[in-house]
């Protein structure tokens, strides 16, 4: 079983976020999200895309959150010697 085939068999948390973001911004999820194809995208509905500045802001916030989580976990692993931590 290939990685791509396995990814299609289950829901990924990013798919849930892809539904949550437009719902929180517009109150509904456009069928455009499910009908587009990578080789022939129809135009996005009005107000469905983000400005470049907002996209960079969201990206920067995500990087900061991930950095803090990784730093916390590194400190946890450095301070403890539990056997299960060696697997992570």
Termini gap: 24 Å
Integer average pLDDT: 78
> How many separate structural domains?
2
The Rg value, from CA coordinates, equals 19 Å
Q: In DSSP terms, counting alpha (H) and pi (I) runs of 4 or more, how many helices?
A: 4
Strand content: under 5%
Query: Total strand count, please?
Result: 0
- The shape is elongated
Question: How much helical structure, as a percent, in the residues?
Answer: 55-70%
Q: Give the H and E element order.
A: HHHH
For the report, how would you describe the main beta sheet?
Answer: none
Descriptors:
mainly alpha; 88 residues; disordered N terminus; single chain; 4 helices; 0% strand
Give me a quick take on this structure.
Helices cover 59% and strands 0% of the residues. It is an all-alpha fold and 88 residues long.
Can you put this structure into words, describing what you see?
By secondary structure, the protein is an all-alpha fold. It has 2 domains: about 1-50, no CATH class; about 50-88. The chain has 4 helices and no strands. It has helices at about 5-10, 15-25, 30-35, 50-80. The two termini are about 25 Å apart. Mean pLDDT is about 80; it is low at about 1-5.
